[in-house]
């Protein structure tokens, strides 16, 4: 599975590494993806999500119920 956040939809970006001699080589910027398990009271079960660290902070702010609603609105399967 690729580096993909289920909440924010963050995916790898591409760019160049520039050396001291100014040669450019391709590189990939991956989001910081973590696996987190949350208890969801409305589903009455634990849910394991693949989230970026920014999404983990978002869940701390808005709550897991709102986050699950956003994920389901995007069409992601839980």
Structure description:
It is a single chain. By secondary structure, the protein is an alpha+beta fold. It has one domain (13-74): Ribosomal Protein L24e, Chain: T. Helices cover 26% and strands 36% of the residues. The protein is elongated, with a radius of gyration of 16 Å. GO terms for molecular function: structural constituent of ribosome.
End-to-end CA span: 15 Å
Beta-strand content: 35-45%
> How many strand elements?
4
Helix-residue proportion: 25-40%
Q: Averaged pLDDT, please?
A: 95
Radius of gyration: 16 Å
Describe the protein's topology.
Elements: E1 13-18, E2 24-29, E3 33-40, E4 45-52, H1 53-62, H2 64-73
Antiparallel strand pairs: 1-2, 3-4
Helix pairs in contact: 1-2
Organism: Ruania alkalisoli
Family: Belongs to the bacterial ribosomal protein bL28 family.
Keywords: Ribonucleoprotein, Ribosomal protein
Question: Quick recap of the structure?
Answer:
By secondary structure, this protein is an alpha+beta fold. The chain has helices spanning 53-62, 64-73, and strands spanning 13-18, 24-29, 33-40, 45-52.
Keywords:
2 helices, 78 residues, alpha+beta, two-stranded antiparallel sheet
């Amino acid at each position: 599975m690729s580096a993909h956040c289920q909440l924010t939809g963050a995916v790898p970006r591409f760019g160049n590494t520039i050396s001291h001699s100014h040669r450019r080589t391709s590189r990939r910027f991956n989001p910081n993806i973590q696996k987190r398990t949350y208890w969801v009271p409305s589903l009455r079960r634990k849910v394991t999500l693949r989230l970026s660290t920014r999404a983990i902070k978002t869940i701390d702010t808005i709550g897991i119920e709102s986050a699950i609603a956003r994920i389901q609105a995007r069409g992601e399967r839980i």
